[in-house]
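job 3f2a | input accepted
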Amino acid sequence: MKNFLTAFAVTALLISCSKKETTSTSTQTDSTKIVDSINAARTKINDSIKSKNHFKDFNGIHKFTHNSINNSGSVVFKKIEGERDHYDVSGSIKSGKNTVEIKGFMAVVSDKHMNFTGEITESISANDNGKLYTRNGTKTFMSKDGGKSYRLQDMVNGSGFVEYIDIHF
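job 3f2a | predicted structure (169 res):
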């Protein structure tokens, strides 16, 4: 009886450990194609969402002012293709010997804030006889009037005086 149970156990073990039938590779290939097509569709949707602005569209020409210059100038916002709320920015204000120039990149980060990265160069005759002053790096423009105008928050110039540089929309 012991031999019979032992033989039965060995036979059951051999049968259970035998190689099972394998699945065909054609079904694996089909599932790979399906996953790839789903990923392609998701990428297309994500790219279309990424390129749409989250905030107001600022593309175009806008009024550019400085409190020490009587005239106003203009600044051009040109949307960067495929980017959300990012613009190339350039513009100037000129009146006699007084000038302000802006050139760089603007990222709209909220309804009230824009981060400008680039260079703002100014020469104001009332400040150190028109000595050239340059602001480099990332600066914030902030709106307190619901987005009608944005003011540079780095307000102290090279001479130590407060000035207002605004972009009006």
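job 3f2a | The mean pLDDT is 86.
job 3f2a | closed
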